[in-house]
Amino acid sequence: MTDLPLHGAMPEARPARSILDLDPRTRARNRAEARFRAYGLGALLVGLFFLVLLLGSILLNGLSAFTQTRIQLPVELLESELDPQGTRDPAVIGETSSLGYGDLIEAAMVQAVAAAGVPTAIEPGDLEDILSPGAGAQIREAVLRDPSLIGQTVTFDLLASSRVDGYVKGRVTRESLANDRNLRPEHLDIVDAMREAGTIERGFNADFITGADASERRPEEAGMGVAMIGSLYTMLVVLALSLPIGVAASIYLEEFAPKNRFTDLIEVNIANLAAVPSIVYGILGLAVFIQFMGLPQSAPLVGGLVLTLLTLPTIIIATRASLKAVPPSIRDAALGVGASKMQSVFHHVLPLAIPGIMTGTIIGMAHALGETAPLLLIGMVGFVASNYPNGALDGFTSPNSAMPAQIYEWAKRADPAFYERAWGGIVILLVFLLLMNLAAVLVRRRFERRW
Amino acid sequence: MPLGWLLLLVLLIAAAGYVMGRRRALSGAGGDTRAMHSLPGAYGWNVAMAVLIPSLLLMAAWTAVAPSVIDRMVAPMVADQGDPALVMSDVRRVARGLVILDEGFDTIAAEGLRDRLASVGVAVGQDVSESTLAAAERYDILAARSSWLLTALTLAIAGGAAAWALRRTTPDLRARNEVERGIQGLLIAAALVAIATTIGIVLALIFNTIKFFQLYPATDFFFGLTWSPSFGGGSELGILPLIWGTLYISFISLLVAVPLGLLSAVYLSEYASHRVRAWAKPMLEVLAGIPSIVYGLFALLTVGPALLAVFGDGGLGWMDGGTAVMTAGLVMGIMLIPFVSSLSDDIINAVPQAMRDGSLGLGATPSETIRQVVLPAALPGIAGAVLLAASRSIGETMIVVLGAGAAAKLSLNPFEAMTTITAKIVSQLTGDQDFSSPEALVAFALGMTLFVVTLCLNILALWIVRRYREQYE
């Protein structure tokens, strides 16, 4: 071999260049590569940005619902107004309606304004606009509970009206009140002075978590408590029905079903049910459970039945996956020592699949907890949630709502003060969902076996 | 007897049956378990199941059917009182209220009864007439009779089954096989719930849709260009504007979700390091776990006003209000990103590594491999994923109820408020007890349309995805 070329001169060479230099085409391809990669990263970042935006706006708008503005107001409970005969009999005192306390509140407000030292042009009768319309009822309740208060001057911790609350939280400004019939900008001068004096304060709002829905005019009183109870009862029904039915159906399909057309039909059916729009389940519940069977409207029992049908496909799919993950050697070993097929499944396969089943069930329940549309159709709308159920069993059948339906109800209302409640409701709902998903993750981490 | 007590009684009979069956089998074998076919417990379970299954079935069937049977027997008595559904609910309330008032039907007068009932917390829709009272009496009698009949029948069946099963209990009885057969029957019944659900959906939709088409011509429904329901009568219920709104919104949502979801799936499965993947994928899937009501509120209160600030009067002037096709479509697109991305992720991962290696070995860059080898190979699966996403967005309710507006319009402007099939189902049916007017029944026809469309999309998508998976297995 020789270094010399065979035929004299080298062939017409391409311009000499180092292999470390990239030709224009390669550079273009590399740029295209970088661009494509950037598109992918960009898409991912946009998705994550939306997540941050969503969670951010929930927290930003929702956390303020957990605080509430209250006014400490000394009210003189005149005997001449409430109990002229001096009987102290609750039946007699009860005859004064909450409206009857208006005069007392008015007098108390006039005094409080005088004490704050603000000269004001507002009529004494309009001063109580600073307070919630429910203030009378709040005082009346306290008096009925303890009639000996009559005749004394008692300092009550009263709810401020939603506009005042909004002002303290920065939602309402003097400009926005210009066209508002509920409160005048002059009221805010009084509010400022009372805040200076410390009689108007913003504090933690436990009533939002435990309370019931309130009428359209009293956003400051509305709470999630009753709707949470409705959700709890609904979820109890879902758990009690969907877990046994789902597990039984999965065991049959995974362990016993012969491979034939009928089994195929069930399988296709379940796959399709998983993708049927949730509102169609609502129509099913309305037509079958309420129209045909005559079950009560708005009852968590019916809500639970509908959501059971809705979550069953999810639970079946998850349970089947975890049954499938149990290795056949377990079944073979059981059968080998003389267990029947049924015994091998119930004594050996099922216990090993329980972590997967639990994870699937919790996720299915979390899904059901956030479901709104079917509940609206069967009458579990938000404004129904105004009373606590009378007893433990009554909770299944007495009209109630559920958390997402309550949020929807607030989102629909005209008063922007309800929007804050809706965001706050979402915070509560998401806390529950977070806890459920955490539980699912923990169960999976702690108990799942890899074979 | 109240249902709860009856249930308790049946359970007690079953428990007693268990103990007695077990004891009988054991004593028959002289206490020697080796002489028995099955374990002692199996004999007990055999008796208990013989009691439980028929009596519980009877109770379930009875409670499901009895109310409507009673209604049908009472309804002719108050047929002249106006809307049957409302009158019957009054009859039921009067019957229940009289129990609370603790008064017999012979002493009560119809006059002033409404106020007396209201005083004990039973609200009746209209004044109680004599015939309503008579119907309530009849209702009460029938309900009591039904309850007694159920109690007697259930107890007879439970007792009879216990006696029959006990008599058969001998040590030679193949008790385990019988119990296992029973359990397998229960398992099959559970699997059949899925089929029953589908049948229930189809029947519920079909019956009410037929009722609707008897009141309102089908051609006007399917080809009508106006949607203006009025409960006073004279409504125009054309579905076309609703279909247009539905398709428009889901088109925009796919326009958002498909590129973003697909590209992030590509990035996550082909480029991202393990650490990034382990973080970013679950984060993205959080979006899928958030309930749609949250997205609805997000559309109404965050995205809508933000879009209005840009495209509204202050900006480009294309938009009149925060609720619009764009708002709903955009937010629905965000909701669908993780749905599209996790489905595409699975499909991209199913493309065999050998195909990638071949392409890379020939000198293609990773992006060329993805665009010219992986994506074409995954295309059918991705098409299936897009169809599933489309079916999701067509069936989505809360986002459009809150974000898209309420006016049914045929317009091309994406910044205008439009409405969808699902939103109208909610508005026509919520809080309504009366299913006799076309304005309420139309919701069932809408539901039927929705069900058929999504079912077709799902079947098509599942078929494509399944076929595609088989291709590489």
TrEMBL record, chain A:
Per the UniProt entry, the signal peptide is none
- Write down the InterPro entries for this protein, in alphabetical order: DUF3333, MetI-like, MetI-like_sf, Phosphate_PstA
ABC transmembrane type-1 domain: residues covered:
228-440
Q: Which Pfam family, just one, is annotated for this protein? A: DUF3333
CDD domains in UniProt:
TM_PBP2 (cd06261)
* Topology versus the membrane: Multi-pass membrane protein
Q: Where are the transmembrane segments?
A: 38-60, 232-253, 273-295, 301-323, 349-370, 422-443
Q: Where in the cell is it found?
A: Cell inner membrane; Cell membrane
Family (UniProt): Belongs to the binding-protein-dependent transport system permease family. CysTW subfamily.
Query: Keywords, A to Z?
Result: Cell membrane, Membrane, Transmembrane, Transmembrane helix, Transport
In Swiss-Prot or TrEMBL terms, this protein is called Phosphate transport system permease protein PstA
Supply the NCBIfam families for this chain.
3a0107s02c
List the PROSITE patterns.
ABC_TM1 (PS50928)
From TrEMBL, chain B:
Q: Which CDD domains match?
A: TM_PBP2 (cd06261)
Q: Does the keyword field hold tRNA-binding?
A: no
Q: Where is each ABC transmembrane type-1 domain found?
A: 243-461
Which cell locations does it reside in? Cell inner membrane; Cell membrane
Q: Does the keyword Manganese apply?
A: no
Alphabetically ordered keywords of this record:
Cell inner membrane, Cell membrane, Membrane, Phosphate transport, Transmembrane, Transmembrane helix, Transport
PROSITE patterns, per database record: ABC_TM1
Report how it sits in the membrane.
Multi-pass membrane protein
Q: Where are the transmembrane segments?
A: 45-65, 148-166, 186-207, 247-268, 288-311, 323-341, 440-465
**Domain of life of the organism encoding this protein:** Bacteria
Q: What does this protein do?
A: Part of the binding-protein-dependent transport system for phosphate; probably responsible for the translocation of the substrate across the membrane.
Which family, according to the similarity comment? Belongs to the binding-protein-dependent transport system permease family. CysTW subfamily.
Q: What is this protein called?
A: Phosphate transport system permease protein
| Species name | Rubellimicrobium aerolatum
